[in-house]
Structures are given as structure tokens and as C-alpha cells.
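Design request, C-alpha cells follow.
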């Protein structure tokens, strides 16, 4: 069974190459965009789709009235809509207006205790709900907290705790802040998890540690292996987190490099427990298929995440330059982006954000923010998912029907309609669309409800039938008994 599934997937991989590279120019979904637009069906086979997002220009430092950005590593959107960029190699924070048409301010230094202080390779940046600017000042090994205008507030550095290793080196690369002003920091080479600081800067512990599971075979192999063989084996240490974002409820979305390509993002509750949903195929790790050639070898390398609202979030794959968007239930909604030198493609994508309905991707190599605007197809999917999140499933039906008009084989749309009918109690209709959506889980629920519905509606008829059947059986038994007795009497008379 396993071998057959492997053969099916290998076949799908080669078909994928044929479809994506040989048929894109002939596809009805092909648009003037420099990347593939596709999704995966229930069998994990690639299917072409219309584009959900298309390139809408790029913004460089020169475009907004400042000097060129030099290897920027992170950016964020403030509550007021301003764009803050961690311009790493230029040792500054560049602030753009909401429309990204001009520079509002450039923060290169700040006054601390009456003296000028500067950044040294600021890697990460975040603006809290209260408007405070948090900078992961990596090579200075600290978090700098400033006002939105760049006035000094405080420094978070040199965490002290018994749970930290004796020679722990605090090198912050990403930072985010929740509604309670708790500060979450990803530090380079900190495998134990995300570091958490209270609003006063005190270190409280690790958060969201990724458990490493070792199989029985791996344990057995290590017992048999030589010392040299064990030394060459990959160390069983937790992976580092790569990016973070926080939703309005204080849940932290955190990305990591997953060697198996199954789970590259976690949704961590306030206790640090992962509560993410993984959907039908149990995969929230980017591309289902990983090529075996060149730069595309191996699974996706997810470097950042942005929470989109209504339970949706998008992941940025630095290996393939693609953006993967999921709903709350872990369903893959759409894919866009790619590597290259054309507008809308990337060389070194490092961070992802959204503003005014656009998705923004920061490219370190080009020193530019790449903008993507939603198409009708993308807008409809976003709206339908949002309606389901809000519990307005009936209204979502008409939206999903419009999605099917653009993409008639969209399993997600069929499944969405089926779920809506299921919620409305129209189980027969639900079964029809859930079957088209290949949603086995919810189809089973709809079938059971429809069966119970039929039984309930026809209970009197069924009971009458049962009673009639019992009566017929009793009559038959009585007739049969009489025949047997009569036969015995006739047999006895013949012997006399």
C-alpha cells in the first residue's frame, strides 16, 4: 500500500513538471504573471488555478526619497499603517507612509542617558499596539525600545536565568509584542524556544519549545552504530524559529524550518501550547511536493508568517520564493510568487506583511518591498473564508459559487458550499458538494445526519413494516406448524 502511494506521488511529481512548465502558456488560467498558480487536490496532485494575487510594483529606498536599502531583514506595519523597515547593513530604521510613496523618518541613532547611541545590524522590527517601536539590534545583542518617533524608552538585554546555558549568547533576530506588552524574541542559536520578557524587561522563560521525536528505529540504530557513525548523524536538537506574528487574541504564529515539510508553523496559545489545525492532509509546511533538483531540492524553508485576520495566515518560503495562505482549519487556499529576476519574483525573500488589502514581501537582495494585489479570484476566496470564520455560512454559499465560476474544479469551494449546507441542516445538498470537494470527514457527518433524517421522517412507515413483517413471520410459523402436524398424522395413519 505504501509502495503504491509512493508510486502515485512520484507520478504526480512528474506530471506536475509537465503541467507547470509545459502547459502554463496554454492554460485557461494563465495570466501575465511570472510564476505558477496552482494548488493541490485531495490526492496531493497539482492542479492549476487562477492567480489569487498578482504583482503590483516594487518600492525601493530611492523611490521614497532616501538612499538604497542594504540587505533589509524585516519590516512591520504600525497600528497607524506606517511601514517600519529594519535596514540591516545601513544600521537604521526607515519609516514609510501608508501608501509607501515617501519616507516619514529615518532613525539612525537615539539619545540614551545624554549620549548618542546607534544600531549595529538591526535584524528585526515590531511596533506594538501602544505604538512603541521594538528593534532587534542583533550585533549589539539587545532589544531597543523607542517611541514611534525614535525617542529612547528602554533596553532589553543580557537575560539572566538558571534555565539559560552558562555561556548563553543573546543575539536577537526577530521580535514581537502581544496585547499585554509581553515581548517575544527569537535569538540566534536558541533551540529551546522563543524567549519571553515581561513589559519591564525581565526574562520569564522559554515559549513554544518544539519537541523532538526520535523513532524506535533511530534509537535502535544508535545502539548498534559506532562512535564515528553517531557523530556523523544529525543531532537531535529542536529547530530554531524563524519568524513570528501575533493575532488580536494573543496567539503567537511562529515559523520554523521543518526537515519533513509537514509543519512549518505553530499557533501558540498563551501557555505556549501549539493549537494549530492542519486540515485534511495534515500539512502546513508549504509545498507538498519537493523537487529533487537544484535549489528546489527538499521541503520548503518557511522564513516568516503574517496573520491576515479571520483565521487566515500566509507563510513565506525562502527556498522557492512562494507565499502559501491557509485558513483557520489548515486548508491551503492559494499559492503565488516565485524566484527570478522579473517583477513579482524574488531573489532573497526574508519577510512578509499585509497592508490595505495588499500582501508585501521584503527582498533583501533587491533592497525592495514587492507589492501584490488580490484578483477577483483571491478576493472571493478571502471573503468566503471570512464569512465562514464569522459563522455566516449561508451568505458564503453565493461567494463560493462565484469561485466555482472562475475555477470549476475548486475542491475548497465545493467543500465550503457543502459545509454551509451541512450547517443549515440541508444534509442531502451537503453530501453532493462535499463529495465534489472530496471532503471525506464532513461527507461522513452529512451522510450520518441524512440517514438519521430519513429514519426519523419514515419512522411510522418503518415501524408499520416491522410489525407487518413480524405478523407475517408468525403466520408463516403457524402455517408451517400445521403442515408439520398434518404430515405426521398422515404418516401415522399409513403405518396402522
Amino acid at each position: 500500500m505504501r509502495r503504491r502511494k509512493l508510486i502515485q506521488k512520484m507520478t504526480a511529481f512528474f506530471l506536475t513538471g509537465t503541467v507547470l512548465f509545459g502547459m502554463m502558456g496554454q492554460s485557461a488560467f494563465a495570466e501575465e504573471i511570472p510564476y505558477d498558480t496552482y494548488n493541490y487536490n485531495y490526492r496531493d496532485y497539482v492542479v492549476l488555478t487562477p492567480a489569487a494575487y498578482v504583482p503590483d510594483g516594487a518600492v525601493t529606498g530611492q523611490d521614497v526619497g532616501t538612499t538604497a536599502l542594504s540587505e533589509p531583514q524585516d519590516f512591520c506595519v504600525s497600528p497607524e499603517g506606517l511601514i517600519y523597515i529594519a535596514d540591516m547593513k545601513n544600521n537604521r530604521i526607515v519609516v514609510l507612509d501608508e501608501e509607501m510613496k515617501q519616507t516619514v523618518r529615518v532613525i539612525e541613532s537615539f539619545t540614551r542617558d545624554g549620549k548618542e547611541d546607534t544600531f549595529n545590524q538591526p535584524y528585526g522590527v515590531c511596533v506594538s499596539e501602544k505604538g512603541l517601536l521594538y528593534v532587534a539590534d542583533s550585533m549589539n545583542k539587545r532589544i531597543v525600545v523607542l517611541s514611534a518617533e525614535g525617542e529612547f524608552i528602554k533596553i532589553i538585554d543580557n537575560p539572566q536565568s538558571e534555565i539559560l546555558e552558562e555561556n548563553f549568547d543573546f543575539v536577537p533576530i526577530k521580535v514581537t509584542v502581544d496585547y499585554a506588552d509581553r515581548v517575544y524574541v527569537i535569538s540566534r542559536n536558541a533551540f529551546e524556544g522563543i524567549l519571553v520578557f515581561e513589559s519591564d524587561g525581565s526574562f520569564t522563560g522559554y515559549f513554544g519549545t518544539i519537541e523532538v521525536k526520535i523513532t524506535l528505529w533511530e534509537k535502535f540504530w544508535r545502539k548498534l552504530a559506532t562512535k564515528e557513525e553517531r557523530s556523523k548523524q544529525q543531532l537531535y536538537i529542536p529547530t530554531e524559529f524563524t519568524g513570528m506574528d501575533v493575532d488580536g487574541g494573543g496567539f503567537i504564529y511562529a515559523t520554523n524550518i521543518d526537515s519533513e515539510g509537514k509543519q512549518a508553523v505553530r499557533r501558540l496559545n498563551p501557555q505556549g501550547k501549539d493549537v494549530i489545525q492542519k486540515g485534511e492532509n495534515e500539512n502546513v509546511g508549504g509545498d507538498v511536493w519537493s523537487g529533487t533538483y537544484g535549489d528546489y531540492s527538499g521541503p520548503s524553508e518557511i522564513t516568516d508568517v503574517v496573520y491576515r485576520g479571520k483565521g487566515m495566515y500566509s507563510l513565506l518560503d525562502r527556498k522557492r520564493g512562494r507565499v502559501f495562505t491557509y485558513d483557520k482549519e489548515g486548508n491551503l487556499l492559494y499559492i503565488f510568487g516565485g524566484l527570478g529576476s522579473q517583477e513579482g519574483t524574488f531573489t532573497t525573500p526574508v519577510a512578509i506583511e499585509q497592508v490595505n488589502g495588499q500582501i508585501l514581501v521584503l527582498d533583501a537582495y533587491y533592497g525592495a518591498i514587492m507589492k501584490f494585489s488580490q484578483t477577483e479570484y483571491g478576493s472571493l476566496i478571502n471573503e468566503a473564508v471570512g464569512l465562514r470564520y464569522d459563522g455566516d455560512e449561508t451568505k458564503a454559499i453565493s461567494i463560493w459559487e462565484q469561485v466555482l465560476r472562475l475555477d470549476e474544479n475548486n475542491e475548497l469551494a465545493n467543500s465550503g458550499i457543502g459545509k454551509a449546507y451541512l450547517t443549515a441542516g440541508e444534509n442531502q445538498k451537503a453530501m453532493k458538494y462535499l463529495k465534489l470537494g472530496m471532503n471525506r470527514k464532513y461527507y461522513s457527518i452529512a451522510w450520518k445526519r441524512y440517514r438519521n433524517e430519513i429514519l426519523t421522517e419514515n419512522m411510522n412507515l418503518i415501524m408499520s413494516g416491522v410489525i407487518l413483517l413480524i405478523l407475517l413471520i408468525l403466520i408463516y410459523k403457524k402455517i408451517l406448524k400445521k403442515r408439520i402436524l398434518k404430515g405426521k398424522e398422515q404418516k401415522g395413519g399409513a403405518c396402522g
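Comment from the thread starter after seeing the answer: thanks! The CA atoms of residues 189 and 452 lie 56 Å apart.
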